[in-house]
Amino acid sequence: MAAARNNAQIAQALATLTTLVARDNDPGRDSEKRLERFMSHKPTLFTGGYNPEGAIKWLDEVEIIFEAMGCSEENKTVLGTY
Fold it and tell me: Which domain of life is it from (predicted)?
């Protein structure tokens, strides 16, 4: 009986491990991780409106984050519009 329980526990552990590995190797997850990294820098929010100085300041701050993250132009567009 103990052997059957151990086998069931091993099978459950392997199933969990398989799920975790599959999730971490999901290419779509890269975008999620990139967004999490970007948001962890707490970028300032651009509120819109007519404020050229505020817009330039916002762009400068966001560009610093993009540079630190090594973002491609495509990723900058996606993250900047989030």
Answer: Eukaryota
Q: Are 3 and 50 in contact (CB under 8 A)?
A: no
Question: Tokens for 68?
Answer: 């630190």
C-alpha closest to that of 37 among 77, 75, 81: 75
pLDDT tens digits, 23-44: 555 555 677 788 888 888 888 8
- Do 64 and 54 contact (CB within 8 A), yes or no? no
CA angle 46, 47, 50 (to 5 degrees): 105
Q: Dihedral of CA 35/40/41/43: which sign?
A: positive
Give every CB contact of residue 37 below 8 A, 6+ residues apart in sequence.
69
**Nearest Cα to Cα of residue 31 among 82, 16, 3, 63:** 82
